[in-house]
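Extended Data, panel c. Modelled sequence:
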Amino acid sequence: SGLLSRLQTSAPTIRTLSSSKPFSQNIPSCLWKLGRLNHVAIAVPDLQKAQSLYKDVLGAQVSETVALPEHGVYTVFVELGNTKLELLHPLGDKSPIASFLQKNKTGGMHHICIEVDDIKAAMTELKKKKIRILSEEPKIGAHGKPVIFLHPKDCHGVLVELEQA
């Protein structure tokens, strides 16, 4: 009646799913595939300080600043090997990042970007599934590829960017 025997008798029973079908067969087939995490975007109030943190303090490879007027942002990419961080800073007063930073003065995570193999098929299917897309057509993103954004209220509070792989 030691501690080990009490733990063994009070441990919950683990049940396994018994099914003749592999788990992946329960996932509906799509005309498009979700790919790898391309980047996590972080809104920053001071782009130079953020660049310096990742480059000078943490030793990461950091890109030059690129202006994307169509999206109202300046972007900088931090290479992490298996993915990237995208540092975002407002470009103009109507920038979505300016309004984000008004609510989050010190900055913070803005969105995640996941690659897809067919952005048009993804848009068609997501609309059928009542997922709101924040533009009628894809825009060209920071990597020169078509991108769309999915409404955060339809994605558990996360702004999701899909990028054509």
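Helices lie at 3-10, 47-57, 96-103, 119-128. This feature is highlighted in the accompanying rendering.
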